[in-house]
Amino acid sequence: MSHADDTRFAVEPDAEPRTDPRSLLVFRAVGRHGSMSAAADALGWTQPAVSQHVRRLERVHGVPLIARRGRGIELTPAGIDLLRHGDAVAAVLRDADRSLRAHADAESGVVRVAAFPSAMATLVSPAVRALAADRAGLELELTQLEPPEALRTLARGDCDIAIVFQYVEEQLDRDGFVAVPLGDDPMLAVLPRSHPGADATAIDLHDLADARWVAGCVNCRRHLLHAAARHGFAPGIRHSTDDYVVVQALVADDLAVAVLPALALAASRNPAVAAVPLAGEPPRRVVALTRPGAALPALHAVVDALRDAAAVATAPGFRSAP
Fold this sequence. Notes:
Keywords: DNA-binding, Transcription, Transcription regulation
Pfam family, one: LysR_substrate
Number of domains: 3
Strand content: 15-25%
Number of helices: 11
Shape: globular
CATH topology of the largest domain: D-Maltodextrin-Binding Protein, domain 2
Family: Belongs to the LysR transcriptional regulatory family.
CATH architecture of the largest domain: 3-Layer(aba) Sandwich
Organism: Microbacterium dauci
Protein name: LysR family transcriptional regulator
Order of helices and strands: HHHHEEHEHEHEEEEHEHEHEEHE
CATH superfamily of the largest domain: Periplasmic binding protein-like II
């Protein structure tokens, strides 16, 4: 092969990353702490050293990353995008550290789980109980978060597993994560015992068009509005609370009707209300998400325990994923 032929295998200069990893992590600290000085304090560096790394990134890429606002800073659109990549790099590095530590003792480790309230009570808690018996060296750190914040926490590397729900009309940004389906969580009409439909085997959402409503969390309220619109009405929402115990109390006192997922009713059930399946309404999907490359043995043990808990969940109509 001639020397000229060898040029086909030459590495183009642009094939090498232009972003210095250390500068990226320094910039991440600036973005997360909101100022050069706060980032310097967090890193134990001087402020000029932090500024030098940020200027280097701006010089290499030819775009401004921050704009000064008084004593603080504001990220430019390019800076916001770069911060997202900085979070991903930091998460991968933490996963690498923990994966290597796990090789010393594959039976132990710390796994951080973020989950919405009813999943915390019905899926996470039984999984923790089972793991306590089988994997004594494994520790779990639990945080209750609604799906959007749980996804952001997972993307930042501040948790290892995010348990989220997704309604059929929603488009959660799950790109870049590994999804493990846990099950389908049906929606139930929650009615006072005195309601004419309380003893029905199923009820149509349109039959509740004239009722007073209590709405739940932001995602749940949005789903109620979407589902009601499909049935040609706008629900008369009189009350709002993301506490499903309070929702049931309001319904029991005949102040409103509501729609709750089966897991919420399994977590805490008021005997003074009736829960009736909604005819033709699709369930919400419950999913456990992890970051790719997070191959900790302890993490896989937790995911398996969550799937086992979903398989025996007693929520009415809940169907675990195969």
